[in-house]
Amino acid sequence: MADSRTAARDDAPLTTSKHADAVDEATDALIEPKGDSLVGRTVTINRPRAELFAFWRDFANLAGFMENVERVEKLDGRRSHWVVKAPKGTVEWNSVVTEERDGEFIAWASEEGAEVRNSGRIDFRDAQDGRGTIVSATILYDPPAGAIGKLVAKIFQREPAIQARRDLRRFKQLMETGEIATGARNRRLQEEGKN
Amino acid sequence: MRALTWHGKHDVRVESVDDPEILNPRDTIIRVTSTAICGSDLHLYDGFIPTMMKGDVLGHEFMGEVVETGPRSTLKKGERVVVPFTIACGACYHCGKHQYSACDNGLPADNQDIAQELYGQPMSGLFGYSHMTGGYSGGQAEYVRVPFSDVGPIVIPEGVEDDKVLFLSDILPTGWMAAENAAIEKGDTVAVWGCGPVGLFAVQSAFLMGAERVIAIDHFPHRLALAKKFGAETINFEESKTYEALMEMTGGIGPDACIDAVGLEAHGFFVDNVIDQIKGSTFLGTDRAHSIRQAIIACRKGGRVSMPAVYGGFIDKFPLGAFMEKGLTLRTGQTHVQHYMPALLNAILEDKIDTTFLISHRLPLEQAAEGYRMFHDDQNEVTKVVLKPGLELAAE
């Protein structure tokens, strides 16, 4: 079956596949796979590729638009420390850049001992005819069993695809408009999460 | 501050709520001087629009004075502005094409999910119109937080009264875009379903764009009389058969362009309308859509159909065969208000377009709930209610 599908494969991203084993194929595209749940999202941002790449590569910036990320600390040129919000406190891990090409892509993976093993890559390509940059995020993560598993499910809001989509929308808003849209009337309502 | 809040079907109240604040660099806060109740607010009032929450502040047609500005706002304190009902960033691909109501960034990220599921892609934000459109507090209030104030609000010259320019916020550009979407050619006959504010502005716009004849369709005599005042011929669908009348009045051809300015809440007991109503009340969820069906059937071969009317979901029995066989063109969409505001402000200042004729009632904000009831119950006499937060309560 796999052979026949490979032979007839269409041009759609593996993250949109109807087949459960697409994750194995996608794994080949990641530099150092960690985890067995696959999330992929693409957004077009009306800004130059170099600008978006530089903003993302400065990992401390990511906490500005990733809802569940409290902060990211730079350890050295390739390693960073992630602090992610959890129902009681935080979970933390170290992440290392496994491969990158300036202005094109960044691939990363969690280091040994991470509570939530994860890896991913973010790709930046020029959109057609000067329409900005197509940004694709592909994330593999390993939801552990037991109590930690439930915690992870909460961190990723049970539906990691929704979280990734929302985070990418916020990235787009920040880069295109200089701010992140909120429907709240004032600070109190914003802090209560009322949009 | 005081504000008109939604609590459920036919339950709106003027209450004290906490004031708005600047949250983002491009925000401004305005003190509202005039705000109107829109026909589409009645969709909220009647409980047709999902994702409403108790306490939501309504209102998307408003203007006022700038009282506070964020660091990246280009407005100055004291300036008088009219605010577009569409919340658009001015920086994304769609805003670049002046498709402001399709803005990518006007909706908060979390609020985009529903529209993405329902429509395929999320649209711009709207003031005071449910959480699916952003959950933004609306303009039927003393103060409003206005995002993207450097690209949205238009500054009004001194000495021009509110009533002349207030409708730049929604219904005037909506009526104008409806006529533009009808691609009117010199000598055309244009039929307009619905003589509410949008329909009446579409009548005026169609003549300005070169229509030879405009035929206005409604069942409220007072509204038909207003259309007649602007030179339209009229059909009262309670007195005459609309399709037959249109065919006879156009020499058996049908109107060259048809504008549906009715939409979601079409009145009248037509068979398809009653079926839609039953489905609506049993949560089978279809829009009541008689007017768009009739517009497609009446339109001449190769003609144009424009649909400014608001639809939110799905309809049954869309006459797809007639639409295809006759080779019609259908254009629609929420209004790209920011695109139309400057030229229409000039048209008002040059007295080419009259807007004040529409206002039948002026009330203090405190009487807003009464304004909703009046507008809902008597659409013949009550053509437009404008709320003035500064107006003294009438002596009892």
Q: How does this model look, in words?
A:
The complex is a heterodimer of chains A (195) and B (396). Chain A is of the alpha+beta class. Chain A has one domain: START domain (Alpha-D-Glucose-1,6-Bisphosphate, Chain A, domain 4, 2-Layer Sandwich). In chain A, 29% of the residues lie in helices and 30% in strands. The termini of chain A are far apart. The N terminus of chain A is likely disordered. The longest helix of chain B has 13 residues. Chain B is built from 13 helices and 18 strands. In chain B, strand 15, helix 11 and strand 16 form a beta-alpha-beta unit. Chain B has two domains: 223 residues, Quinone Oxidoreductase, Chain A, domain 1; 159 residues, NAD(P)-binding Rossmann-like Domain (Rossmann fold), CATH 3.40.50. In chain B, strands 3, 5, 6, 9, 10, 17 and 18 form a seven-stranded mixed β-sheet that branches. A six-stranded parallel β-sheet of chain B has the order 13-12-11-14-15-16, with helices on both faces. About 4% of the residues of chain B have low confidence. In chain B, helix 5 packs across helix 6 and helix 5 packs across helix 12. Classes of the chains: A alpha+beta (195), B alpha/beta (396). Chains A and B meet through helix 5 and helix 6 of A and loops of B.
Features:
heterodimer; A: 195 residues; alpha+beta; Alpha-D-Glucose-1,6-Bisphosphate, Chain A, domain 4; 7-stranded antiparallel β-sheet; 6 helices; 7 strands; 30% strand; globular; disordered N terminus; B: 396 residues; alpha/beta; Quinone Oxidoreductase, Chain A, domain 1; Rossmann fold; 7-stranded mixed β-sheet; 6-stranded parallel β-sheet; 18 strands; 28% helix
In short:
The complex is a heterodimer of chains A (195) and B (396). With 195 residues, chain A is an alpha+beta fold.
